Amino acid sequence: MTRHASSPGPARHSHAGFALIEVLISILVLTVGLIGAALMQLHASRTTDQSNLHDTALALATQIADELRANDAQARLQGVANPFLPFKYTVPANPVSAPSAIDCYRQRCTSKQMADESMREWRLRANLVLRAGGRVEICRDADIVAPTNPPLDWCNGVAGADTTVPVAVKIGWSERDAEGSTVSYQSPQVAVVVSPFSQ
User: Which residue, 37, 42, 63, 150, is most buried by CB atoms nearer than 10 A?
Assistant: First the structure.
C-alpha cells in the first residue's frame, strides 16, 4: 500500500500583533485610571486643607469672642476708647512677634491692659494659624444676623455708637482653585456673632 506524504498546509499567521495592541490598550486604560485617581487625591487633599483652615478660623474667632464677653467693661466702650473694635488685621508674609508690654499672668492688670494683651496674643495666634494674607476683622454689624445683601461682607470701618448692635468677628483667607492657583477672598469665610451688650 502506498502512503502519500501529506503536503504542509499554509503557514499560520502569528497573533503577536493582536497581543501587542491589547497590551497597549491595557496600558492606556491603566494610565487614565491612575491619572484620575491622582486628581481625586489632589482634590481631596485641597478639600481637607480648606476644612482644616475653616475649623482653625472658627476656633480663632470663638477665642476672641470669649475675650470680648469676659472683658465686658472694655467691650462696652465706644469709638477709639474700645481696644477690641473696630479691628482690622492682615497676616504679613513674615510676621514679627511683638513682645508683651505687661505680664497679666503674674501681676494685676486693669481691664484695659487685659484687653490690649488679649488682642496682642490673638494677633500672634492669627499669624501662626492663618496663611500670609489672611484677614481678620472685628466690628459692629447690624446685618450680620439677618444680612440684606448676602454673602457676608467685610466691616465698613464704622465703629458704631449703638452698643445693642451685635459685634461680629470675621475671618477670611486665600484659597486655591482646581489648577492650584491662589484665589483672593471676596468675602469672609467665617463669621462669629457676639451677643449684644446690654446697657
Answer: 63
- C-beta of residue 15 within 8 angstroms of C-beta of residue 151: no
- Terminal-residue alpha carbon distance, the chain: 129
Fill in the amino acid letter for 194.
V
Residue labelled with grid coordinates 473694635:
85
Q: How many CB atoms lie within 10 A of CB 59?
A: 13
Q: Give the integer Cα–Cα distance in Å for 88 and 122.
A: 12
- What's the pTM? 0.68
Give the closest residue to 59 by CA, choosing from 121, 116, 125.
125
Nearest Cα to Cα of residue 61 among 130, 143, 148: 130
57-94 per-position pLDDT tens digit: 899 999 898 888 888 888 888 878 888 888 888 888 88
User: How far apart, in whole angstroms, are the C-alpha atoms of residue 84 and residue 118?
Assistant: 9
Count of Cβ atoms closer than 10 Å to residue 189 Cβ:
19
**What letter does residue 81 receive in the DSSP assignment?**
G
Query: Under a CB-based contact definition with an 8 Å cutoff, are residues 93 and 27 in contact?
Result: no
The grid coordinates listed for 131 are 496663611
**Could you give the CA distance from residue 97 to residue 95 in angstroms, rounded to a whole number?**
7
Q: Domain-by-domain residue ranges, the chain?
A: 18-194
10 - beta bridge partners?
Answer: none
Q: Give exposure, 81-100, as e/b (b: 16+ Cβ within 10 Å).
A: ebbbbbbebebeeeeeeeee
Cα distance between residue 142 and residue 165, in whole Å? 6
Share of the chain above pLDDT 90, in %: 1
